[in-house]
Amino acid sequence: MKNLGVWSLSAAPAILAAGLCAASFEQPIEAQAPAAARAAGSPRTVWDGVYSAAQAARGKKEFEVYCTSCHGTELGGGDGPALVGNDFMRNWWEDDLRNLVDKVHSRMPADAPGSLTPQEATDLVTFLLEANGFPAGAEELSVDPAAQAAVRIQGKDGPAPVPNFSLVLVIGCLTQGADSEWVLARGTEPVRSRESTSSSRAAGAPVPPLGTQSFRLLDVTAARPQNYKDQTVEVKGLLMRQPAGPALNVTAIQPVAPKCP
């Protein structure tokens, strides 16, 4: 398995690829989440014992067959980046397990992408969870994508904003200021995106409530913003939290509604 930390981002700016390739070997994060992060009624997270020890053991065997030549026997990296520690996990905070499993299934190993079965990819991911300090439970992680999507990858202190320089999706109203700068007004909270160009919305999906944030749009010319002025749009790009306010280094703009509400 090669370049596990650099999946599907070829269309994003080089800074993103460089940041994801720079994963370094660190000790696994603590395997204890505070009670507040696991309170009754909270979404299920990787701290809730979402895989079994036996499943992770199967995943370890698969890792030894497919992955050690690039990532090392201790997951510390080599030809490929490290798969344990904060640098690796930072690329997955505030995402869900479906996306992580999908990357393993569709892109790995690099010399035979897509050759792993859904069960093998799922098992392998549970080994990565174990190696990064997330606790095992009584039941196995299901291969059902919907079940995997219901498990959030979060830090031990619970939900947090998406990290800076992440590829994200924001929906808002595309406007242009007096200085001709493009701005996404009334933007929603940024969420992770794993594809830099294609839309993440299903056809006919309802327009979500807009938010209160404004994002300056950088390097937006190629996305032809003039075609969507004063429309509700989905913007994908690199999140850049700056003293002057948040900005998006744009990779794509997709229309959501013909008018801003």
Any chance you could write out the topology, listing elements then pairs?
Blueprint: H1 14-21, H2 53-66, H3 68-71, H4 86-90, E1 95-96, H5 97-107, H6 118-131, H7 145-149, E2 152-153, E3 167-176, E4 182-187, E5 191-192, E6 213-218, E7 232-240, E8 247-257
Parallel strand pairs: 6-8
Antiparallel strand pairs: 1-2, 3-4, 3-5, 3-7, 4-6, 7-8
Helix pairs in contact: 2-6, 5-6
In short:
Helices cover 23% and strands 18% of the residues.
List the defining traits of the structure above.
single chain; about 25% helix; 5-stranded mixed barrel
- Beta-strand portion reads 15-25%
Radius of gyration: 19 Å
Architecture of the largest domain in CATH?
Answer: Orthogonal Bundle
Total of DSSP H or I helical runs spanning 4+ residues? 7
Give the strand order of the largest sheet, numbering strands 1, 2, ... along the chain: 3-4-6-8-7
**CATH uppermost class of the largest domain:** Mainly Alpha
Strand count, sense and barrel status of the largest sheet are: 5 strands, mixed, barrel
Gross morphology: elongated
Helical percentage: 10-25%
Number of domains: 2
Structural class: alpha+beta
- Tell me the number of strands: 8
Task: State the CATH topology of the largest domain.
Answer: Cytochrome Bc1 Complex, Chain D, domain 2
Order of helices and strands: HHHHEHHHEEEEEEE
CATH superfamily grouping of the largest domain: Cytochrome c-like domain
Low-confidence stretches: 2-40
The overall pLDDT average reads: 83
How widely separated are the two ends? 46 Å
